[in-house]
């Protein structure tokens, strides 16, 4: 298939023919009709061709067209596009009127499109150009900060795994909470499409807009429309971007001299002799004994990858009245900031539209993606690069990377850079093919029937090897192990829709949609394992020993049938109504609970269309109020495709007839009453436009998810495991505000866009309990989901008298000393125990925001995008802040400001040798080690320059733009120094978030 798509792409490229006719030259000036100012950079294209130029600084242009009867198209961002017939004129001056309103913008919605002015639901959208103009390695990360109420948390910079976790209007379930993604009408993944191929993205945020997708829409819906061909001669576009990546932040660990000094102090504090002499410390400091007294910079050894990333995209599009096409090929090569981490990805896409008759339109969209990525592995316990990062953060700097004889220095867990030196041991390959075909028949004016079929096939081939290693004569890890993991998933869908639109008596506008959907999903996975290989360079299962070999495998199948409908009505574009309903029948549930029905209703009132509003229109050009109610389902809450069917276990012994007999028994209880999780959503929205330049949208919402699927214990007498039941409730409510402004000041074009969203979630019901404690977090009724839970602290003890006057002098069996954290006796019972634990803060931010500035001057363009969050907290575990704990742990720089009798004016506790003291983050969760994850990040900075058209004329180039781009340029945060606020809390073993600096070129022929 891959070869066929390449052949098709290049065949289209080579067979493009450009007709030649006698040319006719025209000149002119493009001006702003409102301000009578010239417009530089306006596009002047000959209709039906790729022939075009761009106006200069004074708005002047010169264009040679085919003949005197040609038509030219003049366009510029923020202005109404116009067509002008040449009619034998050699001088043509054009006045462009500002596209003062975005209300006529067409927004992609479920199974169709609507004008923005007619929307009654909450839909956010972004143009593909906003993504294409930025140097991003994943579409999900590119959405960060652009859309109100859409949270994108990018917690890793790992090549091939650097996409963001997306949440729409908070987390609506205790289970799988990712939104549904559809690409050109078929369910898929954001990894299936590249930014350069995207025409637009719409996000359906409420039930009114998403109910048409029923049981898959509870977490929101992302609709992606890819670019298609347009009538005209072939247009060839090329983009190339070259960049280098580096960590945004790295933890600041101490070197051998500082650590050695602190270690001596901690040992003395514990009543033990110091480990290092003054001479040892001096040798650490002066570096004259690199093998006997090394100062190994483990981070520098780890983050030694080039960080090189290169993206190239080649596209061709064009067409005629009957056939339109667009084809593209994309390649991205990414070398990680850690050696042997990287990604090599190819994407090929073909979109073809054929209209053999005016009443018949056919579409075919094909895409193929192959991604290969690699990673080193931990020879000791596996776990990939995360374990290597963790051990790098822990191993002491006085352990040498290599000894003088070339062998590796080690601790009990080994040497993390030795694992890195062994090369890539984990290889992932994913191949994704998507085919979408549709036929639309226009039976009569306003009525059409459309059939769409899709096929998505994903093949994954993952290989993980743990290579044996002999660090030195006395240290070995092995044997070599190999795991092969193969999986295939296939999704086939069919949609049949009938659409009717009619205007009655020039006042009543009616739209009716009815549809049928069916889909089948199949998943198959096989895993095999062997060990004891004769050498580490033969990653083939047959080369391993058959002793201890293992294999597992299973298949899963899911089928669904749906019926859905929508009715839109408006009176003179003033009073707007919409109703949706969808019924889904899923094989995931038992027969009696298989069907779920999900309705929604919404209405809008365009107050600005009322006669009494005329006096306000010069200031408030448009004003619309929206209200909505609806219900959505979530059938994908669990990975279990058969949650209602009991599981039998084999090899169960039964006493029978005085003998032990082997048989089968139910081992996992299942619940035949299990039904869909259901989310009820309420919304109120206001859309307005001020001074013909400022668009403002305000949304208030509340959504309640009921019947959340949770595990509950089976009665003891059944001797079965826990089973699933619909017992949880979770509520989200919030407000979203977005503002967009654009204007022109003389020679400058200026734009601003901003959005902010506040979301509060609250647990309403759990499974027969008020709270569930899970490690450092708690799920408690009336509080936010997964809040931090532990002890409040109130400064440090300064003296023994201070300790004696307090409620207790031990914490978790550890004797309190001056310099330890002072725990708060919340209950006032004279002791500190588990009853004194309280909620300490949210693990997720409740406020997210983003804003961007754009500026154009002559041929220059500038874009700055900022993104941030507030209200969340992260916990600094002992692996993050470090500890004074011998060879296998090292402290971070925070401990340089530790409490001592001479340094009492500090918040940092005293030193101990180990990780189990009363003030260390390991023993108990305390407010002291909780840090705010509030941050403001410059997500993107881009500066571009368009080469003047007069320079490009002789080269037949329509457009040539060069640019510099920076991603994640800087971050302002009070989070612990060196740790990224988006990274997961805890051990600090995640691949660092990266900053990217790149240069690129956009070229159009």
Task: Provide a descriptive summary of the structure in words.
The strands form twelve sheets. The chain has a 22-stranded antiparallel beta barrel. Strands 10-15-16-13-14 form a five-stranded mixed sheet. Strands 3-2-5-6 form a four-stranded antiparallel sheet, with no helix packed on it. About 10% of the residues lie in helices and about 50% in strands. The two termini are about 30 Å apart. Among the domains are: about 1-95, Immunoglobulin-like (Sandwich), CATH 2.60.40; about 255-295 and about 790-835 and about 885-920, no CATH class; about 305-570, Beta Barrel (Maltoporin, Chain A). The chain has twelve helices and 53 strands. By secondary structure, it is mainly beta.
Give the structure's gist in a few sentences:
This protein is mainly β.
Distance between the termini: 28 Å
Main sheet attributes: strand count, strand direction, barrel closure: 22 strands, antiparallel, barrel
Low-confidence stretches: 1-21
Number of beta strands: 53
CATH homologous superfamily label of the domain at 307-571: TonB-dependent receptor, beta-barrel domain
The class by helix and strand makeup works out as mainly beta
* Overall average pLDDT: 89
Question: Characteristics of this structure?
Answer:
1005 residues, Immunoglobulin-like, mainly beta, disordered N terminus, Maltoporin, Chain A, 22-stranded antiparallel beta barrel
Element layout with pairings:
Blueprint: H1 2-14, E1 24-32, E2 43-46, E3 52-54, E4 60-65, E5 71-75, E6 82-85, E7 94-96, E8 106-109, E9 112-115, E10 123-127, H2 128-132, H3 139-142, E11 150-153, E12 165-168, E13 180-183, E14 186-187, E15 198-204, H4 207-210, E16 221-226, E17 232-247, H5 256-269, H6 278-286, H7 298-302, E18 308-319, E19 323-335, E20 342-357, E21 360-375, H8 384-394, H9 416-421, E22 426-444, E23 447-466, E24 469-472, E25 475-477, E26 481-504, E27 508-531, E28 545-571, E29 575-586, E30 595-606, E31 620-634, E32 647-656, E33 659-668, E34 677-690, E35 694-712, E36 723-745, E37 748-765, E38 771-774, E39 777-780, E40 787-790, E41 793-796, H10 800-804, E42 810-811, E43 814-815, E44 821-823, E45 838-841, E46 847-857, E47 860-870, E48 873-875, H11 878-881, E49 930-932, E50 935-946, H12 949-952, E51 959-967, E52 971-973, E53 994-1004
Parallel strand pairs: 1-7, 13-16
Antiparallel strand pairs: 1-4, 2-3, 2-5, 5-6, 8-9, 10-15, 11-12, 13-14, 15-16, 17-18, 17-53, 18-19, 19-20, 20-21, 21-22, 22-23, 23-26, 24-25, 26-27, 27-28, 28-29, 29-30, 30-31, 31-34, 32-33, 34-35, 35-36, 36-37, 37-46, 38-39, 39-40, 40-45, 41-44, 42-43, 46-47, 47-50, 48-49, 50-51, 50-52, 51-53
Helix pairs in contact: 5-6
